[in-house]
Amino acid sequence: MEQSIYFEYIQKYFPQLVLGIVEKLNGKNQTALSYMFKQLLTPTYSVDGRWDILTGTYTRVAADVVAMDSPLPLKKRDSLSRAGGDLPKLGIEMYLNEKQMSDIDALIAQGMDINTIVQKIFEDTPRVIQGIWERLELMFLEGLSTGIALADTDNVGTGIRVDYGYLTENQFKVDIVWQGNTSTSKPLDDIKKVMDKAEEDGNTIIGAYADQDWFDNFNASDQVRQQFAFLQGFAGDKGIIPLLDNTQSNRVLSSRYGFTVTKIDRTVITEKNGARTAQKPWKKGTIVFVCDASVGSLVWTRLAEMNHPVSNVAYQTADNYILVSKYRVNRPSLKEFTTSQARVVPIISNPDRIYTLDTKEAETASSVEAETASSGKARSKVSQ
Q1: Domain locations in the chain?
Q2: CB of 262 within 8 A of CB of 209?
Q3: What is the pTM of this model?
Q4: CATH number of 7-57+78-164+296-350
Q5: Tens digits of per-residue pLDDT, 244-257?
Q6: Which residue from 286, 280, 263 is spatially nearest to 194, judged by alpha carbons?
Q7: Beta strand pairing status for 41-45 and 296-301?
Q8: CA 101 to CA 14: how far, in whole Å?
Q9: What single string gives the DSSP state of each residue in 120-174?
């Protein structure tokens, strides 16, 4: 690696340019693309380069009333399970070829506007920073909607799998598939089952997330439209109630259950072996209910290159955990590289406070009977 051809420009503009990119993509510019992982995860530094999830079967147990000077009764501890692993390394690189560098040299020689020159030299810088964020967004949205985040860690197929440990009993299916069954499906009843389970667990659902497919089928439901008409004081023929929009549906949910649903509408472009693919990371037709404003941590650690920088390479850090580098190589041909790398992973910390409802799958008779039997046993134990 050799020092960048544009070293004087890098010294002057690289730090403030990276800072400006971070500020723009972190939401200070309202036209910038937003990232849910930035809104719902808390950045957390890992000293040993590992991530961990603690899942507990927490139960609120009331304290006993005891006489003065009496010993306190010992209560049973909740059980805990742990999952963890090494933080993966994410990275992306882009380069200027000889033709592109010759064009920049011509701009400099002609005394062109400095902003034009700087834009050409640093054109790849926002792309490599955003490339890390796009991968994290893909992993987070897939993980939040399914309980499992998958990602390739390089371009040859080696991948990581992060299982957040969603509780089976907190993953619901509907009684009747919503799509195509607007008159017979009961979305509000399906959601009530989730609400009841959360209340039984001592949790309070404060919000939910779903894709437009979920909204489309919820909005079209006769039950939901009738509930909206009732809220509006309309008592006419239900057949003339129009399809609801997302805002109207959220009014129904807010009135009935005290929370609203945030729409997830995100496509991430990935590239593997030169082929680009557009992916929708959110599980289609699934709604995720949360009980906390922050659902977990964005766990990161320092890269080895942060502690042992390579000579002649220019470095800047974005969001503490992304290392951006600029340098040139002359083998087999002259190229000016811009790269980014990070050791980071999105982690959902309290999976026992997450509830999901898959509207594409209906409960089978056997599963309903098993659930009913289980509930009956639980009530029997309480009554004893």
Answers
A1: 7-57+78-164+296-350, 168-264+353-383
A2: yes
A3: 0.84
A4: 3.15.30.10
A5: 999 999 999 999 99
A6: 286
A7: parallel
A8: 18
A9: HHTTTHHHHHHHHHHHHHHHHHHHHHHSEEEEESSTTS-EEEEE----GGGEEEE
